[in-house]
Amino acid sequence: xxxxxxxxxxxxLLDIPxxxxxxxxxxxxxxxxxxxxxxxxxxxxxxxxxxxxxxxILNTPLLGLNTLVLLSSSLTMALAxxxxxxxxxxxxxxxxxxTAALGVTFLFIKGCDYVHMWHKGFTISSSLFGSCYxxxxxxxxxxxxxxxxxLVCLWAAASRGVFSAAQYGRIEYxxxxxxxxxxxxxxxxxxxxLV
Amino acid sequence: MxxxxxxxxTYLVIYGWLIGLTILEVGVVLAGWPQGAIxxxxxxxxxxxxxxxxxxxxxxxxxxxxxxxxxxxxxVLGIVFVLALFPDVVFHLVQRM
Lengths: 195, 97
Fold this sequence. Notes:
The complex is a heterodimer. Chain A is mainly alpha-helical. Chain A contains six helices and three strands, in the order βββαααααα. Chain A has a two-stranded antiparallel ribbon with strand order 2-3. In chain A, α1 runs parallel beside α6 (169-194). By secondary structure, chain B is mostly helical. Chain B has two domains: 1-63; 65-97. Chain B is built from four helices and one strand, in the order βαααα. Chain B is flat and about 55 Å long. The interface between A and B is large, with 58 and 54 residues.
């Protein structure tokens, strides 16, 4: 393991910087938001008299590919953090751009999936499953879009040389958000697209 | 402050596991296994993937256990929320029978 240091105000007991604590508090609200939606979906599905098999409606291999894209973006985000912890500015910018590009690829594939589903007659108002699918994946997509905008802002800041081996807090905290989006998709992919 | 973070090799190993678990998920669904087996495997793999991301990519493994409470409490509350609604689900299912 690499030992890294950063001079920031720490939260007592937790031993984490104030910025990281702030991001975790924000993520707590996000967890409550998505557990509410996912919980409602589970209850609706278990209580429904009939439910279509996702494989009959959704393009499982395409959504599987999208999962691989988002997992890859988590790897590049983690590598971006490691790059700046080691003071590698060029690698940081490269990994941030790659992460943003993978996020855009995810949104593009999702958009293609939406158009394909829409033409097949599977719309937000076609069934309870349709409403749940578009609501859950739509909200997740908005979070990915926000993440991409955040990554572009970080890349712009990195291009100005804002970050260094001693100052990388914003990269780490933004990474937490990006990985959280990844976790949400991992769960959505399993419960919406496979079961 | 001094913290510990995984090496690039650790990140790549975790990424390999995540990809492998995703291929397993799609594989069992496309292979047409019994529904009970599919649900069990998918829940297990999804939880394993979420844990791997949280522990290694989000560095929870290297934070103090007290930090785990931050995401842990809302997750537990979410599970309680779903379980609290189960009697209602069962009631409607029984009514339809």
